[in-house]
Design goal:
By secondary structure, this protein is an alpha+beta fold. 30% of the residues lie in helices and 31% in strands.
């Protein structure tokens, strides 16, 4: 199992974050997954995430292996979800992306476990996210991690499932 150290991302990480995401987009496109592009996510998204102290990086042996954003913000479309308990405190995962050089090594699963522990420490009772219906790898990951579908929404790229998991 790979040892990953997580910390808040900094503006100094920006070039490496952009490279990771651009490489991931190429791999996804090669696999027929047209989820991310030059319109989303942008460098400006990452700068805003960093300034808000919501973007995290995962490092293994000094290499950037994963990034994600964790906050309590969600798109208006999230109101369409049949959330189990609207009143419970929740966090939302955005822009989870594994460095293609380190994919298929369990990093996303390890990172999901880490995120859930961190959200729990912050008082969250649930973790929510949306997943592109045409990304079989992400669908399998979230299903295997115990996330349940609670709705479907349409965005520019197509259909996305709204998902959530209640924490212990």
């Amino acid at each position: 199992m790979m040892n990953i150290n997580y910390r808040l991302g900094t503006l100094e990480d920006l070039n490496e974050i952009n490279n990771l995401v651009h490489q991931a987009i190429k791999v996804m496109e090669n696999n027929g997954i047209k989820q991310l592009d030059m319109i989303y996510p942008t460098q400006e998204d990452f700068i805003n995430d960093i300034k808000a102290e919501q973007l995290y990086v995962g490092l293994s042996y000094e290499k950037l292996v994963v990034i994600y954003v964790l906050n309590q913000e969600c798109d208006e479309e999230y109101k369409k979800g049949q959330w189990k308990d609207e009143e419970k405190t929740f966090y939302v995962i955005h822009r989870l992306c594994v460095n293609p050089l380190f994919q298929n090594k369990g990093i996303a699963r390890i990172t999901m476990e880490h995120i859930e522990k961190e959200a729990n420490k912050k008082g969250a009772k649930a973790v929510r996210l949306d997943v592109f219906t045409e990304n079989p790898y992400a669908l399998k990951l979230y299903s295997n991690c115990g996330y349940s579908r609670v709705g479907t929404v349409e965005w520019r790229k197509g259909k996305f499932f709204l998902m959530e998991k209640y924490l212990q």
